[in-house]
Amino acid sequence: MHSSDRRILLTIVGLGLALRLALAVILPPGYDESYYFFYGQNLALSYFDHPLAVGLWAAAGEAIGRLMPAYPALSLRLPGLLSYCLAQLLLAEATRQWFGRRAALLSAALTSLSPLLFACGGLLLLPDSPLVLLLSLLLWWLSRHPLNARRSPRESLQFGLILGLLSLCKYHALLLILTLVAARLVDTVQQRRLRVGDTALVLAGWLATSWPLWLWNLHNGWLSFAFHSGRTTAAAGFRWEGPPLFLLSQLALLFPSIGVLLLLALLRPAPATSEQAREGTWLLRLLAIPQLVLFLVLSGRMQVLSSWLVPAWWLLLPLAAAVLARPGVWRHLWLQLLALLSAAAVVLLSLIAAAHVRWGIAAAVVPTAVDTSGQLLDPEQLRRTLRQHPAIWKALTQAQVIGSNRYELPGFLALALQGTTQARFSCFANDCRGFDQWRGRLDPGARRGVLFAVVGDYTPIAALAKAGSDQPWHFGPLTPLGQVQVKRGGITTATLEFYGFDPSRVRRTEPITRAAPSG
């Protein structure tokens, strides 16, 4: 890449990072982020609902947080903010190999401007951050070593290692790997040669890096696979309106002009002008289509989260950039205006949305009853609010165990209390996710505990003290400590209730059901 192109590319990536940094400073932690915070405190080979990689990102964020304790949410997000820049550069280089320098720069612009992609992959602490990084690494490698070309033993081992690392990011990666296996089998049949040595080296490299996932599940009854596969078979019937509505929501989250471009690139990619372009077009469509088909079909049977199609759209970015890079395309004034308006709108709307989540600036037009973003708890504000209630603050800072009735909630309090408590955090509900494993690390001699919940959310927490068979947990007596109102823009958006309890008297009942997985 020429030095001028490199400067333009770094400028595009830098501007995208500046936008995401601003959003990271403004936005309070999300529900998933508050939960993944505990991944960093409980590093393991894998987890109940996700592989290892997001735990490493969380651990890195926590390490940064110890250096800058005034910004706990930003600290957690910094690894993803930085890894997304590297993912952009790798994707741009892969795009350049296949479709040329102009397409490479345009791919970086698209990754910087699509809200769904930069929020999931480069802003929030989510498994998609390591996923898009390793997916970009895979595409970068494949742009230099075509899938069906002859490879040296070293290259075959490298390919397997990358696939193994990808497996540690998110279970979506397994569908990508199965697609590559199917393509290799078809090529084997067509060429009538097995290439056993090459296959064995790829498999060896994959196992050498993905073994934490398999070992953890082996020792935990294949819990992750049972959890995720069980959800896809739990629903009955098929809602035909599901796929089109889900697709429309995806186009909106990608930003409409970018979403439509990605669909057009899938259906009518730019004409291939070289062998590399033909190889890239074939490979990207091969990898993206199964992802799109699977989750669109599943959206007719179950709730499909917005982030689940991020890998499919990421794979289509080079094709979309190639469409925009065709000679003569930018001579159209309407396209130039659309690009400028889209870029300005993304920046402006993203900042407005983040400001509303943080300060409620649109509360006059968005009713509190339907705006759940008000229940996202800003750690600094929550800390200040809790200090205004001496009895609750004293109980929290002296507690040995702090728990809630939702697995997403303890992380908000853990971030707010950083540096002031040595308590272990836990969850007491039907669906406890990773807390089921982490609870084993609680001190069995603990006697001081605090239980908290959002008032009006799920079963009243006082009901946990009753010994009814319909309750997942049995507690001893609960001591009311009081309530704390969380305000945003002067309006109460959530009320937290706090109770003291004796952790040694807690008993769990059976059976326990599992809820749907998070993003």
Can you put this structure into words, describing what you see?
The model is unreliable at 512-519 (pLDDT under 50). 43% of the residues are buried. β1, α19 (410-416) and β2 (424-427) form a beta-alpha-beta unit. This protein has helices spanning 3-26, 31-41, 53-67, 72-99, 101-113, 115-122, 128-144, 153-167, 172-191, 196-219, 223-234, 242-254, 256-267, 275-298, 310-324, 333-359, 379-387, 390-398, 410-416, 435-438, and strands at residues 401-404, 424-427, 449-454, 473-474, 479-488, 491-501, 507-508. The chain has 519 residues and is an alpha/beta fold. It is built from 20 helices and 7 strands. The chain is globular and about 75 Å long. The chain has 3 domains: 3-331, no CATH class; 333-365; 374-508, no CATH class. The strands form 2 sheets. It has a 5-stranded mixed β-sheet with strand order 2-1-3-6-5. Strands 4-7 form a two-stranded antiparallel ribbon.
Short structural description:
The protein has helices spanning 3-26, 31-41, 53-67, 72-99, 101-113, 115-122, 128-144, 153-167, 172-191, 196-219, 223-234, 242-254, 256-267, 275-298, 310-324, 333-359, 379-387, 390-398, 410-416, 435-438, and strands at 401-404, 424-427, 449-454, 473-474, 479-488, 491-501, 507-508. 59% of the residues lie in helices and 8% in strands.
